[in-house]
Amino acid sequence: MSGVVLKKLGAPEGLARRFLVTCMIVGFAALALAGIAAAWVTTRTAEHTRWVNHTYEVEVAIGQLQALVEQTEAARRGYVLTGIPAYLDNQRSIATKIDPALDRLTVLTEDNPRQRGRIAELRQRIVDIRNRQEATIDLVQAGKRADAVTSFTAETSARRLRTIRALFATMNADEHQLLVARDAAQQSSLNAFYLIVIAAGVLILLVATISVATVMRYTKDLGAARDRLQLLNTDLEGAVAERTADLTRANEEIQRFAYIVSHDLRSPLVNVMGFTAELDAARGTLAELVERATETAPDIVTEDARIAATEDLPEAIGFIRSSTQKMDRLINAILRLSREGRRTLTPERLDLAAMSQGIADSLRHIAEDRGAQIVVEQPMPTLVSDRVAVEQILSNLVENAVKYLSPDRAGRIIVRARTDGPRRVIEVTDNGRGIAANDHDRVFDLFRRSGTQDQQGEGIGLAHVRALAYRLGGTIDLQSTLGQGSTFRVTLPATLSDTGPST
């Protein structure tokens, strides 16, 4: 609804979406505020309940203490007037409870300065009454009950009791005022909570209305877009099929071209290699001739001729032979890539652990000669893919790790595999020389190598690995630090679906 309104007002669709997001945030904030308010009110209610109970405890303690004082005075009066010992026993029993009751009331009112002052006065008043009670009791026990009655009649005990009763009444009134104030505070908290809940409810209802209206509008637009997409897909499938056929033909042409060019390059290369052998044989004959001429007629052999026959010509022939041998290896590598691209993949269930262990065993003697260890971490997940391609990938990566060990430390090569959703991740980690950061991408290019070139190779191994990984529907990436080691990570689908030739 908000988007429709904003669009009618000329607002862009992006603004409508931002407005909707803002409304959603406001709604969630309102909901959070209501939750916080509920927690706050709950805490306040618990606190209020605790203080109300405390007030009631204080009121009960005041009442109990007042009753004890009244009862001791009544028992004393009965003893003075009648002289019956039971009254005295009752007075003594009740009097022993006054001090504990007074102490408990003191503890309960520690948080109230006004009540503490009243309790101090009350304690003194109780001491005064207790002294007067003991004086009249002593008179009765001395056989002077008439004097005790006269003293009791003349004393101001009634006034003392009224003072104490007034203190008790004031303390009760103070607690009642506290209770009223706490009730008012609690009611204020409840009112605030109700206002917050009502406001949050209104905001949430507004956000829900806007969201439902927006979802309905976008659902309608989505249905129309789906219909249009279906129409486009009908045409797109045909275009994709046609384009795929064109790419397949183009790829096949490239492979045939590479195959033909490789064969065409091999013919002159064979001739060059043959003539190089003839030149080498002629060089030997010429060198013998120069040697005999030097012995029989040294005047006719110049130093330049001797050096040309014995040093320059052999060096040039050696350069020609090494270059033709390198060219022969490169042509063979191109032919292998071409044949691999035409090979039909055959998926089967592969035991990666057994395959990795077999590759490690085949290279173990080379690794041990170089002081390295190959570790295959188990268990490993199974993989449905082409056995030849996966073996070539693993072999190339492990063999490269063995070739490029660091001379500064004992080599350690680890092969591991794990499941990542619908894919399998194979990692080959080593602590070898490592690869510079600017060469991380270039090492996968054809005929490109990195670092010190002290190992034989044509720079085609990693390019072949990447081509195989792509053909199996996967990827390969590299993490490496120069001087510390490398990790090659191959990610393949758990089940290979495309078994046709490379397209």
From TrEMBL:
Pfam families named among the record's database cross-references: CHASE3 (PF05227), HATPase_c (PF02518), HisKA (PF00512)
Annotated GO MF terms: phosphorelay response regulator activity; phosphorelay sensor kinase activity; protein kinase activator activity
Keywords recorded for this protein, A-Z: Kinase, Membrane, Phosphoprotein, Transferase, Transmembrane, Transmembrane helix
Keyword NADP: no
Family matches, as SMART domains: HATPase_c, HisKA
GO BP of this protein: osmosensory signaling via phosphorelay pathway
TM annotation in the entry: 19-41, 192-216
Catalytic activity entry: ATP + protein L-histidine = ADP + protein N-phospho-L-histidine
Recorded superkingdom: Bacteria
Known EC number: 2.7.13.3
KW Phosphoprotein (keyword) present: yes
Enzyme class: transferase
Protein name listed in UniProt: histidine kinase
Ranges of residues in domain Histidine kinase: 260-496
